[in-house]
Specification:
The protein is of the alpha/beta class and about 200 residues long. The chain is built from eight helices and seven strands. α1 packs across α2 and α5 packs across α8. The model has no long low-confidence stretch (mean pLDDT about 90).
Amino acid sequence: MFMQSPPVERLLESLRRLPGVGRKSAERYALHLLTLPPEISEEFSAALIAARRAIGWCPLCKNLTDIMPCAICQDPKRDCTTICVVERPTAVLAIEKGGGYRGLYHVLHGVINPLEGIGPEALQIDTLIERVQKNDVKEVIIATNTTAEGEVTALYLAKRMAEFGIQATRIAHGVPMGGGLEYADDVTLLRALEGRLPL
């Protein structure tokens, strides 16, 4: 059967790398893509390649961007004394939708997870420390997810910020325990940011 052919298996494995996509979902997506007219599937492929080539990492905050540095880092109306630290770019999008936060961001690209061999050196923590040392940062808001790994990362960051005399705060737990920031509604995120507490 054609679903076991090497090109289709490669497509299935690629689709399974997407979050929340298992074998059955990957098969459905693959069948849909393979039944599209060739010009539409080629347009899809070209759009993905073009977007991937145009988007990179901001050299300052490590968020996804199409300009260097990103629009948030370049915005003179932003409060550059406050940095909100998040796990992934999706969290920046979620907080920005709320419209209440006007500081800067820093994306770690993960959390400390000793069971998977992910230590602080594997994250963008050193670049965060460079930023707080070079700039007049007064507060670092730690907005990692409320998972065990997110909490460990938050405590580690709080200790590191204390070394430099910088106040570390944690967003209030208006975000559901075990949930991700990208799934919370705008009001919950805004209240969580407004109700942050020192660690």
